[in-house]
Write a structure and sequence with these properties.
Layout (H helix, E strand, L loop, with lengths): L4 E10 L4 E3 H5 L6 H8 L3 E3 L8 H15 L9 E5 L10 H9 L5 E5 L5 H14 L6 E8 L9 H4 L4 E11 L5 E8 L7 E3 L10 H5 L5 E3 L1 H22 L9 E4 L4 H10 L11 H4 L6 H9 L8 E8 L3 E8 L3
Parallel strand pairs: 4-5, 4-6, 11-12
Antiparallel strand pairs: 1-7, 2-3, 6-7, 8-13, 9-10, 12-13
Bound molecules: coenzyme A.
The site of coenzyme A has 21 residues, from helix 2, helix 6, helix 8 and strand 12.
């Protein structure tokens, strides 16, 4: 391969200490552990409960650990991209807040809002900066504090989401391992099925929007479910085909952790054997932009240099897509 690839040279994750189990939820809404496990695969989620803490504080922990793990000084970082739909504030961006908290002083930063596909969009964007030669070391974060936008009286959403995420370091690579291809799609008409109604310019915050509970995730679960399966399957097929690969050539499928049944449907439709499919949804729920870096961090010890990995995601927007990479260490 002649092209210089951009590699992931390290990964680290962070989830807050607080845990919300299905049994805890049984006491809050009309639900039960058996329903949640059989419909979603989720057993617990981590929730950030410390007063005054926000998404950037979780990101700070993930990035500090990443710098230590990769023996990188904060001053070496040129760019930080943070994928999140739960920024600390509407502005400024969480990426710059996080740089300030970590002590990354030579970088610029910005956020990407693409819901559950955010980490993949950010990963590919970050890789382009390295590929162009303009930036040497780029940190990409995928992280969300979903508990800040979830209505804990709505049993159809509060059982699904959790807080947490992770970060990766991107660098140029002399060896032929790294990010090989990405295929992304979007469909803005999907916004009616999954969104947060109030607080933006379309419906600014008012006494009425608060009274009407409009500052929480609104989701039509069944519709999202179907679109998630077809979106991930279709983009995986395109990436495999245009790289002349079959699923036998892939060592790991890393799907966005939205729902165990979505993951099983995607893997089943593509004939991926169970042992190649990365699953940790039982421990974290859906952390939106956080699920993919959480998967990479949890399974890092099982990846071998040269392993071919497919990452796939679907989320609000609608946004979706698939990235193919080879593990570089
Ligand atoms: N506990 C018990 N019952 C519940 C429940 C809960 N937490 N949530 C919903 N129900 C009930 C519904 O009220 C409904 O009852 P009814 O038949 O009396 O009307 C019944 O269970 C079936 O609800 P339905 O919405 O059809 O369930 P589902 O099988 O589609 O599962 C989701 C619901 C949300 C788990 C599922 O649709 C899903 O995961 N969708 C994708 C969500 C997602 O991934 N979003 C992230 C973006 S990628």
């Amino acid at each position: 391969m002649s092209r210089n690839l951009v590699k992931i040279s390290g990964v680290n994750s962070y989830v807050p200490k607080g845990i919300l189990t299905n049994h805890d939820l049984e006491k809050m809404v009309d639900t039960n552990d058996e329903w949640i496990v059989s419909r979603t695969g989720i057993k617990q989620r981590h929730i950030l409960k410390e007063e005054g803490k926000a998404t950037s504080d979780m990101a700070t922990e993930a990035v500090k650990g990443l710098l230590t793990k990769t023996n990188t000084s904060p001053d070496e970082i040129d760019l930080v991209i943070c994928a999140t739909i739960t920024p600390d504030m509407k502005f400024p961006d969480t990426a710059n807040t996080l740089c300030d908290k970590v002590g990354i002083n030579n970088a610029f930063g910005f956020d990407i809002n693409a819901a559950c596909s955010g980490f993949l969009y950010a990963l590919t964007t970050g890789a382009k900066f390295v590929e162009s030669g303009s930036h040497k070391k780029v940190i990409v974060v995928g992280i969300d504090m979903m508990s800040s936008i979830i209505d804990y009286t709505d049993r159809t959403t509060c059982i699904i989401f959790g807080d947490g995420g992770g970060a990766v370091l991107l660098e140029a690579n002399d060896e032929p391992y790294g990010i090989l291809d990405s295929y992304f799609k979007g469909d803005g008409s999907g916004r009616k099925h999954l969104h947060l109604k109030a607080g933006g310019s379309a419906m600014p915050t008012s006494e009425q929007t608060v009274k009407d509970n409009l500052h929480y995730v609104y989701q039509e679960g069944k519709h999202v479910f179907k679109r998630a399966v077809s979106g991930m399957v279709d983009t995986i097929k395109v990436v495999l085909e245009r790289n002349n690969l079959s699923n036998d050539d892939i060592d790991w499928l890393v799907p966005h952790q939205a729902n165990m049944r979505i993951i099983n449907s995607v893997a089943g439709m593509l004939d991926f054997p169970e042992e190649k499919v990365i699953i940790n949804i039982q421990n974290y729920g859906n952390t939106t932009a956080g699920t993919l870096p959480l998967c990479l961090a949890d399974f890092e010890h099982q990846f071998k240099k040269g392993d071919k990995i497919l990452l796939t995601a679907f989320g609000g927007g609608f946004t979706w897509g698939t990235t193919l990479l080879t593990w570089a260490y």
